[in-house]
């Protein structure tokens, strides 16, 4: 059965990730149903990193003008390899084609990938945790290296925390910014068997 990983314990990253990836990609055993966040056939897992940081929210008036709510501005997370060394960072950056800020992962070698959400499922860890998602690459680039440039899909799993603040968001707090601590695993896929 799928083991749920909690807390900021990098020592358990490799074991937790292996179990979660096996379950999400539908290789956990007989009877496993496919998931909306399964990576399409023709892509293979290349690396898994662990994120520790915050989801940054801002109190804003709803687009319809009726009421106020916490709106996600961006993630701000450090990405770690299984051995605890820093892999890179995760945030939002401007996508040149769409003109929108989109999820971006950058490795220490200067390579980066931007991806947009394809689908999501509620976190099996419960409603106090941000969803698990599948994202598709929309842009990438290299720096001194090319670690992330061939990425086709990114999965976010094993989420802990990160939901919108429970504090008041109203006319008196509009514009306020607040971070919500979160942990997650990000799995990077490339084309090929």
Key terms:
6% helix, 1 helix, 193 residues, disordered N terminus, eight-stranded antiparallel beta barrel, mainly beta
Write the layout of secondary structure elements.
Layout: H1 13-24, E1 43-61, E2 68-80, E3 86-94, E4 101-107, E5 112-121, E6 132-141, E7 151-161, E8 177-191
Antiparallel strand pairs: 1-2, 1-8, 2-3, 3-4, 4-5, 5-6, 6-7, 7-8
Helical proportion, percent range: under 10%
Shape: globular
**Main β-sheet description:** 8 strands, antiparallel, barrel
How far do the termini sit from each other?
26 Å
Write down the secondary-structure element order: HEEEEEEEE
Trace the largest sheet across and list its strands. Answer: 1-2-3-4-5-6-7-8
Question: What would your notes on this structure say?
Answer:
The protein is mainly beta and 193 residues long. The protein has one domain (10-191). Helix content is 6%, strand content 49%. It has one helix at residues 13-24, and strands at 43-61, 68-80, 86-94, 101-107, 112-121, 132-141, 151-161, 177-191. Strands 1-2-3-4-5-6-7-8 form an 8-stranded antiparallel barrel. Mean pLDDT is 86; it is low at 1-32.
